[in-house]
Specification:
The protein is an alpha/beta fold. It folds into three domains: about 140 residues, Orthogonal Bundle (Enzyme I, Chain A, domain 2); about 100 residues, 3-Layer(bba) Sandwich (Glucose Oxidase, domain 1), CATH 3.50.30.10; about 325 residues, Alpha-Beta Barrel (TIM Barrel), CATH 3.20.20.60. Helix content is about 45%, strand content about 15%. It has 24 helices and 19 strands. It is globular. The N terminus is likely disordered. It binds phosphoenolpyruvate and magnesium ion. The site of magnesium ion has 5 residues, from helix 18.
Length: about 600
């Protein structure tokens, strides 16, 4: 368990109105969607939304002390910031220019304003941000109505100070995530995939967000980094105060604020049990992912950045089944050059050799944006100018990437994969550009693997249904269930309001997967799964029974999935799949999957349910 010693923290607080001390508030429980397993305990680090919008939220009488404490904390921070500004201004521009801050400080200590905030908070029972904004606005309006010029100008000061207070109430800007100096639990309205990619796993013990869903790239990232996370918590970012003690249970989707001592003790015990099971799983590292009746399912790993390769190797993956190269573009402030890209791809290929590394060409768009690529705002980005569509429209950018991948292929373990293929024309065009990239490298006498394998992601229903047309142009299929489910079921993968409709065991999905596998086999192609469905230990027997040849999953999940495979007979998986293909209900299929794992590897359920 990642934790700081919270159970013994003395968290009494000072009352903003009387200056007396009150005991810490009772434990609060929040429920969301657990997207990255594990337990983390630490101090809350609040990330403020980018805009200054203040939302009204009703509170209860029991919440009043918490809101007052947040107000008190924000006042302390604001005073300190103004003192610092005052000193800086005095040093740079002289005493007179710094005078303005005297007025700001006086306002922060003005009893009339402070008492009014406390009174409104207690009578209206609204969140402190909203109360501060309302009180400040009333003062501003009153000042603006005065005759006296000097007093009218003070209205600007009230607004200024209120804005600063609100910002401090809301928390830190997301850029502060880059240089955290203390371990913490990040609480945010939302985190973008690039913000998550930049999280320092030494410092971020866990995170919880208002928005998000299990197959958003933010959630995928959290799993790859092994950071416990819960998303879809509606308004948690408004309900937690900076430095509150927070417990994140990423398996069950629960977050506890100021957890009670008994809760902490119970979680300590759970964490110990988890560690025991995980210690047993690590002994599987060098064992094959082979069913009890001798059927091998190579387990590869998904990576987002070259630094993830360490985790790939320590978790015993036999290669990389999906390298999401777009994060190289997302994390850079300029378009990475051919040399910069080649260096990253060569590094990955060399470190996993002799195992294969499947490098997916950039899947920009959807929920992954790159500011320097100047993509237009799109109303429906997941169905818009994304992935291969963007690349084919920008052949120079695409060919630069293809040349860089080719340069990394000299050890002959690199394969190329195109994302979001929706028709065969795209494959033919991408292959044409690949042939050009090869010719250009040959003209420069640069070495590469001339017979590099090319495959496509099957993640759009039209591709799954026309796999037979695509198959002659490529060497493998890799099913991207994250997008396949969203496009087939018309369920936005990043929208927490429809998470309950996101069903990988839906009969439509099973039919598309089965068709892809069968067509692949008829054409002599292997077919893998690189979407999150393949990393769900409950669904692995189903995929195996459907005939999948390889799974590529988040690296920390490999030991668990390997254990499920090693406890299983292929015949059991086949029977499960046959039954599933006959079933008309996603729930029934899921229940059968759970029943099988409960039968073959019961202790695994402890870790996943
Ligand atoms: C998928 O869609 O399943 C997939 C693996 O790609 P991504 O999650 O990057 O869209
Ligand atoms: Mg996808």
């Amino acid at each position: 368990m990642h934790s700081r010693n919270w159970s013994h923290r003395n968290s009494s607080r000072t009352d903003v109105t009387t200056g007396t001390s009150t005991p810490r508030t009772a434990e609060l429980e929040f429920k969301g969607v657990g997207v990255s397993p594990g337990i983390a305990i630490g101090a809350a680090f609040i990330v403020a939304p980018d805009d200054d919008t203040v939302v009204m939220r009703e509170i209860t009488v029991a919440d009043v002390p918490r809101e007052l404490q947040r107000f008190e904390n924000a006042l302390v921070v604001t005073r300190q910031q103004i003192h610092d500004l005052q000193h800086r201004m005095t040093a740079e521009l002289g005493q007179e220019s710094a005078q303005i801050f005297e007025a700001h400080l006086l306002m922060l200590e003005d009893r009339a304003i402070l008492d009014e905030v406390v009174r409104v908070l207690k009578t209206k029972l609204q969140n402190i941000e909203f109360v501060v904004q309302q009180v400040a606005e009333r003062y501003t309006q009153a000042l603006l109505r005065l005759e006296d010029d000097y007093l009218r100008e003070r209205a600007v000061d009230v607004r200024d100070i209120a804005r600063r207070l609100l910002r401090n109430l809301a928390g830190h800007s997301s850029s502060a995530l880059a240089d955290l100096d203390q371990p913490c639990i990040v609480i945010a309205h939302d985190l973008s995939p690039s913000e998550t990619a930049g999280l320092n796993r030494e410092k971020v013990l866990g995170f919880a967000t208002d928005l998000g869903s299990p197959t958003s790239h933010t959630a995928i990232m959290a799993r790859a980094l092994g950071i416990p996370a819960v998303v879809g918590m509606h308004d948690i970012s408004l309900r937690v105060a900076a430095n509150d003690a927070v417990l994140v249970d990423g398996q069950h989707g629960q977050v506890f604020i100021q957890p009670a001592r008994e809760r902490l003790e119970r979680y300590e015990r759970k964490a110990k049990d988890r560690r025991t099971i995980q210690a047993r799983l690590t002994t599987l590292r060098d064992q094959p992912a082979r069913t009890r009746d001798g059927y091998d399912i190579p387990l590869a790993a998904n990576i987002e950045q070259p630094s993830d390769v360490d985790s790939v190797l320590t978790n015993g993956a036999v290669g990389i089944g999906l390298y999401r190269t777009e994060f190289l573009f997302v994390k850079s402030d300029h378009l990475p050059t051919e040399d910069e890209q080649a260096a990253a791809y060569e590094d990955v290929a060399r470190r996993v050799a002799p195992y294969p590394a499947i490098i997916r060409t950039m899947d920009i768009g959807g929920d992954k944006f790159v500011s320097h690529l100047k993509m237009p705002q799109q109303v429906n980005p997941f169905m818009g100018w994304r992935a291969i569509r963007f690349c084919l429209a920008q052949p120079d950018i695409f060919k630069t990437q293809l040349r860089a991948i080719l340069r990394a292929s000299t050890l002959r373990n690199v394969k190329i994969m195109y994302p979001m293929i929706s028709n065969v024309k795209e494959v033919i065009e991408a292959n044409r550009l690949l042939a050009e990239a090869k010719t250009e490298l040959a003209a420069r006498s640069v070495a590469f693997d001339p017979d590099i394998e090319v495959g496509v992601m099957i993640e759009v229903p039209s591709a799954a249904l026309t796999a037979d047309l695509i198959a002659p142009h490529i060497r493998f299929f890799s099913i991207g269930t994250n997008d396949l489910v969203q496009y087939t079921l018309a369920v936005d993968r990043v929208n927490e309001l429809v998470t309950n409709l996101y069903e990988p065991t839906h009969p439509a999905i099973l039919k598309l997967i089965k068709n892809t596998i069968d067509v692949g086999h008829e054409h002599g192609l292997w077919t893998g799964v690189c979407g999150e469905m393949g990393g769900n230990p409950l669904l692995v027997p189903l995929l195996i029974g459907l005939g999948i040849d390889e799974l590529s999953i988040n690296a920390p999940g490999i030991p668990l999935v390997k254990d499920v495979i090693r406890s299983l007979r292929f015949s059991q998986a086949e029977e499960l799949a046959q039954q599933a293909l006959r079933s008309g209900s996603a729930e029934e299929v899921l229940a059968n999957c759970r029943a099988l794992v409960n039968h073959t590897a019961p202790e695994i359920l402890e870790l996943v349910e």
